[in-house]
Design brief:
Blueprint (H helix, E strand, L loop, with lengths): L5 E6 L26 H8 L6 E6 L9 H8 L4 E6 L4 H10 L5 E7 L2 H6 L3 H13 L4 E7 L7 H10 L4 E5 L2 E3 L2 E3 L5 H7 L17 E2 L5 E4 L4 E3 L7 E4 L11 E2 L17 H14 L3 H14 L4 H13 L3 H14 L4 H14 L34
Parallel strand pairs: 1-2, 1-10, 2-3, 3-4, 4-5, 5-6
Antiparallel strand pairs: 7-8, 9-13, 10-11, 11-12
Helix pairs in contact: 2-3, 3-5, 8-9, 9-10, 10-11, 11-12
Length: 386
């Protein structure tokens, strides 16, 4: 187990040598200018005798100037993790030769199979994976299960398994065909996630009002050295070239959308812990167990409107419309400021009135502490994330 007391996601660059159609950042395949100097970065990290886990992401980290040398300097005291498309063979070979696996948390490799096939680079990916694996690195190959990828996923998993590479599905988070994902995955895709239970914590939760250590022990750094509280909260805490003021303690989350690692840093009460478990079970296809977890939520907090709403969604899908209506009414009455609960109530009312043309269904709520939320965010295509 790595021994560090603070962690940072470093968004090193917007530049990338891949141009994936579903990527949530506009990337350019250009030379990186004005990189952060080793000295500036290490001066910041080495203050106060902290030991950091630096998660290096982008863009593509391996195109960063002198990337392997940078990793050598960082890993003398700190730990790193790398998010990469695993395409740059020369740099990957140098990384495997010069960096100790004991200083690397993991290498998070994105498969991006369609982009890789366009470049005739599938074998290149396989070779680079084994270069790192043979050197002792922990590599996690993720496969973003966009709804359009459902049909080919089993064949891809079998192919890479035959080549010694295990694949981990990752939920798509965003809008496709006017539906919010991962909430609207088919039962077939949920069955895929059933074999990967941790995938259920990769949802976009709403932690507004919940105490979180982001800004205290977890931060995000931009390419120019600006420090944000976290990937979801763009509150500026300073810049490593000037001064950075981290929070002294956990403070309430101020945003309606946690796109990244908040689940690791929030302080949940028992009701909220059961609610998160219910959401995990829901995504992995265990809806009966998810409903039981939401009922446990209500034992600790009888007014947890998100739990009421979500049990109502299950009732609706099982065509128990009268019960669903009662649950949506309770959720709306407890927290009328959340538009989703009213929307779901109107849907079930229309269904009970015999509207056979209804093409929309009630939606799951991911609001963890609904009592403090003034409105529910709505994900737009521009906000969609992998």
């Amino acid at each position: 187990m790595l021994n560090y007391n603070k962690s940072m996601i470093w968004n090193m660059t917007r530049n990338c040598n891949f141009q994936c159609s579903y990527c949530y950042f506009p990337h350019k395949n250009e030379k990186i200018t004005n990189p952060i100097t080793f000295e500036s970065l290490l001066n910041f990290l080495n203050k106060n005798d902290d030991v950091w886990l630096v998660g290096m992401t982008g863009g593509e980290p391996f195109i960063y100037p002198n990337f392997v040398s940078l990793c050598e300097q960082l890993t003398k005291k700190h730990f790193i993790g790398v998010d990469t498309n695993l395409s740059l063979s020369k740099e990957i070979k140098a990384f495997a030769e010069k960096i100790s696996p004991s200083r690397v948390n993991d290498i998070y490799a994105s498969l991006h199979i369609e982009e890789r096939e366009k470049r005739n680079a599938v074998q290149n990916f396989i070779d680079n994976y084994h270069t790192l694996a043979d050197a002792g690195f922990t590599i996690k190959v993720n496969y973003v299960l966009h709804p359009t990828m459902e049909a080919r996923y089993p064949k891809d998993v079998a192919f890479f398994k035959d080549n010694g590479i295990p694949i981990t599905p990752r939920p798509f988070k965003g809008i496709y065909n006017n539906l919010k994902y991962p909430q609207n995955y088919s039962s077939e895709i949920k069955n895929i996630f059933a074999d990967h239970p941790t995938a259920g914590t990769k949802m976009v939760f709403n932690f507004r009002g919940v105490d979180c250590k982001s800004g205290q022990t977890f931060i995000r750094m931009e390419p120019d050295g600006t420090i944000f509280r976290c990937p979801g909260d763009r509150t500026v805490l300073g810049n490593i070239h000037e001064n950075v003021n981290l929070y002294a303690c956990a403070t309430p989350c101020n945003v309606n959308r946690c796109p990244c690692q908040g689940i690791n840093y929030v302080k949940l009460n028992p009701a909220e812990g059961w609610f998160i478990e219910g959401m995990r079970l829901f995504l992995t296809g265990a809806e009966k167990n998810a409903a039981n977890a939401f009922r446990q939520t209500l034992l600790y907090d009888s007014e947890h409107s998100s739990a009421l709403n979500n049990i109502g969604v299950f009732a609706y899908e099982n065509k128990n419309y009268a019960h669903a209506k009662r649950l949506f009414e309770q959720a709306h009455n407890f927290h009328p400021q959340v538009p989703l609960f009213k929307q779901n109530l109107e849907i079930v009312k229309n269904t009970l009135e015999g509207d056979k043309q209804l093409s929309i269904h009630p939606e799951i709520s991911e609001i963890v502490r609904p009592s403090v939320v003034n409105y529910e965010y709505s994900v737009t295509p521009e906000q969609s994330t992998e």
